[in-house]
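Possible regression after last week's pipeline update?

I re-ran a chain I had predicted before the update to compare outputs. Posting the input and the new output here so someone can diff against the archived version. Not blocking, just want to make sure nothing changed silently.
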Amino acid sequence: MVAVFVTFRYGEDFSTVKARQLAENSRTMFEAMPGLRSKVFSVFPQLREARNLYLWDDHEAAQRFFTPESREHVAALYGVQPIIECAEVCALVENSHT
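New output (post-update):
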């Protein structure tokens, strides 16, 4: 399993409201996406950042999503270039009872 952290760093133009709207407007795009286990949208107002966490089944699934075109698309949506970092998931605890 692969975790991908996508960070958007802003200057004075950061808006928590805009980050929340972007998350709400795009969340359905990720529902039932092949290879994606989960996605978390988050904001760090004190840091002027939005950060998204993706959990993918494998590195190939993540690579299929994070193409140069998709990177440019999210940069246009968020108004800043994303910082994308990948990590191998060593262990996962899920307490969801759905």
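Follow-up from reviewer: compared with the archived run. The first strand starts at residue 2 and ends at 9. Marking as no regression found.
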